[in-house]
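Work Package 3 (structural annotation) set out to generate three-dimensional models for the target panel prioritized at the project kickoff. During this period the team completed the workflow that converts sequence records into discrete structure tokens, so that structures can be stored uniformly alongside our sequence database. As a representative example, we reproduce one entry of 145 residues exactly as it appears in the project archive.
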Amino acid sequence: MAYQQSGMPDQQFLWDVFQRVDKDRSGHISADELQVALSNGTWSAFNPETVRLMIGMFDRENRGTVSFQDFGALWKYVTDWQNCFRSFDRDNSGNIDKQELKTALSSFGYRLSDHLVEVLLRKFDRFGRGTILFDDFIQCCIVLY
């Protein structure tokens, strides 16, 4: 199943979001600021490790933060992953179970055994429910890549 990639939002929209997230008005978004701003669609906090990985991917200045110039790409990255996640969350539960994870990974070209999918599920299931939330799904995919 294909998922819809989002287009880049306009600069004014991104600037407004950036300013709301940049709580200390430093002109850069820290991992802590980004974590507060991101939502799983549940009441759980976004995984700090996922936030750290994403900051590292988009921090071209090696400051541990994201500038406005890099924020648009980060926004698109999260939005595209959100669309992808929703396309595999067939029951709209806000999380992905073992079968949904296997389907997602297969669509990305990974041919993993049921055992390996179970290992990934256990590794990225922070709450022991047999499911993966949106942020942990991103982290799982980053680690596999």
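DSSP finds seven helices and four strands in the chain.
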